[in-house]
From TrEMBL:
Domain Isochorismatase-like: 12-102, 118-189
Top-level taxon of the source organism: Archaea
Protein name in the entry: Hypothetical isochorismatase hydrolase
Pfam entry (one): Isochorismatase
Gene Ontology MF terms: hydrolase activity
Gene3D superfamilies: Isochorismatase-like
Species: Haloarcula pellucida
Length: 213
């Protein structure tokens, strides 16, 4: 890779996207196929960044019961009573494998107000109101103040939130690593299109080797 797109391991942050119980657990109300199977790889990445105390951000969705903050494509279902990632519920929580401790819970009020919830050394949770983690959030400032120029992206569900986050990161000139085996919903053409805009494609094992070499 050329010097303009080559990822920098010493200034990299990991983003996990929407890996919450309601999207992940078998039989959950909004289960996304393949997310549960990708969790062990996400867990390896989380533990890697946690051990290095490198910036780690868990990006989540929270749907108010009245549907007021929900995407238009899902608003009717929420208004009709669907309880999906509802603030304060177990379904909205990060899956247990990604939590730093079993008793950690989301501070929904802080997150919905745009704050970053610190849950460990250099580890935070943030809320995004739409597909991209950069849309109407302070993520750019958060990363820039930590001198992050490279983001590593994994999570749920590639066609929507991870992919949109990656494209908006590219628009902001971040160097980007995408981890297909730690992400649900991945398809070949989408990965090729990421490569075409300079995204580095690395499997979990490749990321571990790269970060520890």
């Amino acid at each position: 890779m050329n010097e303009y797109i080559r990822p920098h391991r010493d200034s990299a942050a990991l983003l996990t996207i929407d890996t919450q119980n309601d999207f992940t657990l078998a039989g959950a109300p909004a289960e996304i196929e393949g997310t549960g199977e990708a969790v062990p790889q996400m867990q390896r990445l989380v533990e890697l960044f946690r051990t290095r105390q490198a910036p780690l951000v868990h990006v989540v969705r929270l749907y108010e019961a009245d549907g007021s903050n929900v995407d238009r494509c899902r608003r009717a279902d929420i208004e009709a009573g669907a309880a999906i990632v509802r603030p304060g519920t177990d379904g909205a929580e990060l899956v247990a494998e990604l939590k730093p401790s079993t008793d950690m819970r989301l501070d929904a009020d802080r997150l919905l107000n745009g704050g970053f919830q610190e849950i460990g050394p250099n580890e935070h949770v943030m809320y995004k109101p739409r597909w991209s983690a950069f849309h109407r959030t302070d993520l750019t400032d958060f990363l820039d103040t930590r001198s992050v120029d490279t983001i590593v992206v994994c999570g749920c569900n590639f066609p929507n939130c991870p992919r949109t986050t990656i494209y908006e990161a590219s628009e902001r000139d971040y160097r980007i690593v995408f981890v297909p085996d730690a992400t649900s919903g991945v398809y070949e053409r989408g990965v090729r299109e990421l490569e075409d805009i300079g995204v580095a494609i690395k499997e979990t094992e490749d990321v571990v080797d790269w970060m520890t070499e």
